[in-house]
Structure formats: C-alpha cells, structure tokens
Write a structure and sequence with these properties.
140 residues, alpha+beta, Beta-Lactamase
Length: 140
C-alpha cells in the first residue's frame, strides 16, 4: 500500500481504498466540525452506536458521548465549567484517553475510552473523536 501511495501525483484516486481501510478500523471514529456535529464516521462507529451513518451525519456527537465538550473550547465543559475529566481539544502530539460513556440507539450505556484530536483552523478546524468499547475490560 505504501509503495502505491509513495510518489503518487494524485493521491485522491486512492480515496475508495482509504474508505475501505477506514471502515476496517475496530475503534469507532467520528470526524466532528467546530460546532460538535458529526461530519463523517466509520463502520465501527455505526455498529457501536446502532445508528446508520445517514442517521448520525450532522448530529451532535455530544448526544452520543456523555460529557463530550464543544471541540473548540479547549477543555471547557459545554456548561462553562472547566473539567479535567472531559476530553480536551488537543494538538496531534498529545494523545490522552479518558473513560466515558456512549449512549447507543438501544439506550444501554456502553463504557468507552475516548481520545480527542483537534486540527486547528488552518487545517479545517475539525476534531476526531476515537471511541473504544471497553465493556469487556470492565467485566474482567
């Protein structure tokens, strides 16, 4: 794969292949705009939430992930208070993960570990929320 992309003049021709790889990732991945609305998600996110991709595009990620802050407020909880228990807007170099809960379509809370990466305005001002189901870890 790397040899195919290395030296490619037009990497956009590989977008279908990248989408297939994106959908094969086991962690749930949500691309979120500066308002906290979901722009894109992978197949794992759809499976974990119980919603189709079409159901979630444009919806606030905070409706699914308990305590998810507004992405552009750098760790400020949506209600205004600062909280170190919530994911913070971070640069790509930092990768803290926090324990939270996801509320899927069936309403039964799922414990998750989340990481939150923020791309600054010059990169589109989007965030990536990565959620890993840790239900089995909690049971063990």
């Amino acid at each position: 794969m790397f040899n195919i992309l290395n030296g490619a003049n037009d990497w956009t021709e590989y977008i279908p292949l990248m989408q297939i790889m994106f959908d094969q990732i086991k962690d749930s991945i949500f691309f979120v705009n500066s308002d906290g609305n979901i722009l894109l998600l992978n197949q794992s996110a759809s499976k974990l939430t119980g919603y189709t991709k079409e159901d979630l595009i444009g919806k606030p990620v905070g409706a699914l992930i308990f305590g998810h802050p507004t992405p552009d407020l750098a760790g400020i909880h949506p209600h205004g208070e600062h909280s170190s228990n919530h994911p913070q807007t971070i640069s790509l170099e930092q990768k803290p993960s926090l324990i939270s809960e996801l509320i899927p379509k069936n309403g039964q809370s799922i414990p998750i570990e989340i990481s939150h990466l923020h791309f600054p305005q010059q990169k589109g001002n989007i965030s990536i929320v990565i959620a890993r189901d840790i239900s089995e870890r909690k049971i063990a």
